[in-house]
Design brief:
There is one protein chain. By secondary structure, the chain is α/β, with parallel strands linked by helices. The chain is 42% helix and 13% strand. The chain contains 19 helices and 15 strands. It has helices at residues 17-29, 42-59, 65-74, 98-109, 127-131, 165-177, 193-196, 198-209, 215-224, 232-239, 241-254, 265-272, 319-326, 389-401, 417-433, 439-450, 456-463, 467-478, 488-504, and strands spanning 10-13, 33-36, 75-78, 89-92, 117-120, 140-145, 154-159, 181-186, 308-311, 331-334, 341-343, 349-352, 364-367, 378-382, 405-409. It has an 8-stranded mixed β-sheet, with helices on both faces. A 7-stranded mixed β-sheet has the order 10-9-11-12-13-14-15, with helices on both faces. Strand 4 (89-92), helix 4 and strand 5 (117-120) form a beta-alpha-beta unit. Helix 1 (17-29) packs across helix 2, helix 8 (198-209) packs antiparallel against helix 15 (417-433) and helix 15 packs across helix 18. It starts with 9 loop residues before the first strand and ends with a helix. The model is unreliable at 501-505 (pLDDT under 50).
Length: 505
């Protein structure tokens, strides 16, 4: 089955930023587009704004002038819902309120033909609940575009409880024909991206609330060590703190206040204060004219150790051994089966973040996970008040000798990148086990929807199947609230892996 025929008109109801973006995508794909808004004059204003964006595409040589002119000719503001009667698809991008969307679709259903496909661009409401108000909910599907819709490739195609397979397939193929990357998912709170991405924000906020590090340092570690394009604090400032918090609350409530999705009190206070991010001039950061730029904590230069002793291969951080050798620091290997530590000349130890804390051990410094230790430009270290100053200095000097900036944070279990990635991996396994989406679609959604450097299952394969479970299990022992309890899906994944490996040896 293919998408819509190009001769079929498409309607977009709601002419805000997202509605305009979806209309532009359909126009450039070759459809006639009807724009409708309940506020008089808004559709005409939106058409003018879309035309201006098409002009800019021509100026940037991304669109031929003839194609722009043809697209403009296909764009028609509608003054009444009845003007949408011959449309083969109606996409709504109106206020994110269930009653508003239900009322709109009831009205649309009275106007369009029985075979017209209806689509909601909701990001947080239940597609099933929206469709519950319709005579024929089988033709309603979720089409969740990401902002800006003309630029971001991902579209989540969401099937509600009553959505026909035919409707979902038509929507999927149509999105692909429009040049998008569709992923199919079930109607679950947050769909794929907004469900699995919650820990990216939540764990950054949790480290901040625990006074483990300031926003600039956490963001720098997520970018320069974790490989994420933006840190959680700067990204929520860009999104809008009110918008991000609203999605978090929606997912949390929809999961019956599941502790894994608990909102951040610090973010709530920020929203209550009116500091909503870039759009108000202040959020986690100050964007006002003349404001001083927040800089991450960076340790002062320290002398590198004369040598290190490697106990084991360091697991996911094994690449460090080669880097240390390349830096001219001798690496002495100890015969350890399960070691993941470096022993420093002072007798202190340097270990990869594992969900434990430095204060539990004598003279241990933890280092955070990195996407790629060779390419990382910053590494976070954590130590307790009981860690010997010489041990911490040697650890700092070691990573500086590898060309890395070092941020020393508080003694927070799981540090920053490690706890964030582990929780993302866990929620991804849980979602797939519950039929939300396939592993491939989850990875695609997280890479293309929120620009993660790797999909959760790609992370899982790279780090080893036991890594996320073991780290979360340690975190759960230290915070028994349930927030870090590994899911049953991750438990099965971890021990099924052991069984397969045992049977093949």
């Amino acid at each position: 089955m293919t998408g819509l025929d190009l001769s079929s008109p498409v309607a977009v109801v709601g002419t805000g930023t997202m509605g305009q973006g979806i209309a532009q995508v359909a126009l450039v794909a070759g459809h006639r587009v009807r724009l409708y808004d309940t506020v008089p004059g808004r559709a005409e204003e939106a058409a003018a704004a879309i035309g201006a964006r098409l002009d800019r595409l021509v100026e940037k040589e991304r669109l031929a002038a003839s194609d722009r002119d043809a697209a403009r000719a296909r764009l028609l503001p509608a003054h009444h819902l009845a003007d949408l009667a011959d449309c083969a698809l109606v996409v709504e991008a109106v206020l994110e309120r269930l009653d508003v969307k239900q009322e709109l679709f009831r009205a649309v259903e009275d106007v369009v033909d029985e075979d017209c496909l209806l689509a909601t661009n909701t990001s947080s409401l239940s597609v099933t609940a929206i469709g519950g108000a319709l005579r024929n909910p089988g033709r309603l599907v979720g089409l969740h575009f990401f902002n800006p819709a003309p630029l971001l490739p991902l579209v989540e195609v969401v099937s509600g409880f009553a959505t026909d397979v035919t409707s979902a397939t038509r929507a999927y193929e149509m999105a692909r024909a429009w040049g998008k990357t569709p992923v199919a998912c079930a109607d679950t709170p947050g769909f794929i991206v907004n469900r699995i991405a919650r820990p990216f924000y939540a764990e950054a906020f949790a480290v901040y609330e625990a006074q483990g590090a300031d926003p600039a340092t956490i963001d720098a570690v997520l970018r320069e060590s974790g490989g994420f394009r933006m840190g959680a604090f700067e990204l929520t400032d860009l999104i809008g703190q009110d918008v991000n918090e609203s999605v978090t609350h929606s997912v949390w409530r929809s999961f019956f206040q599941d502790v894994r999705f608990t909102p951040s009190l610090a973010q709530q206070r920020l929203v209550e204060s009116g500091r909503l991010g870039r759009k108000t001039g202040q959020g986690w950061y100050d964007y006002q004219d003349g404001a001083e730029r927040s800089e991450p904590h960076t340790a002062e230069d320290a002398r590198p150790p004369a040598y290190v002793v490697a106990e084991g291969d360091l697991g996911p951080a094994s690449e460090l051994l080669a880097l240390i050798g390349e830096a001219g620091i001798p690496v002495r290997a100890e015969d350890e089966d399960h070691g993941t530590r470096l022993v420093l000349p002072s007798g202190g130890q340097l270990a990869l973040a594992d969900g434990q804390t430095s204060v539990e051990f004598r003279d241990v410094v933890y280092f955070d996970l990195a996407l790629d230790y060779r390419k990382a430009t910053r590494v976070a270290l954590s130590a307790s008040q009981d860690t010997a100053p010489q041990t911490l200095a040697e650890a700092v000097g070691l990573f500086q000798a590898l060309g890395k900036k070092v941020s020393v944070i508080g003694d927070v279990p799981g540090m920053i990148v490690a706890r964030t990635v582990a929780r993302i991996v866990d929620l991804a396994h849980d979602a797939v086990a519950k039929g939300v989406a396939t592993e491939e679609d989850v990875d695609t959604a997280m890479r293309q929807g929120v620009n993660y450097p790797l999909g959760p299952f790609e992370w899982s394969r790279r780090l080893g199947k036991e890594w996320a479970y073991d780290l979360l299990d340690d975190l759960h022992l230290r915070d028994p609230s349930g927030r870090y309890a590994p899911s049953l899906a991750l438990y099965r994944h971890r021990y099924a892996s052991d069984k397969r490996e045992g049977s093949s040896s």
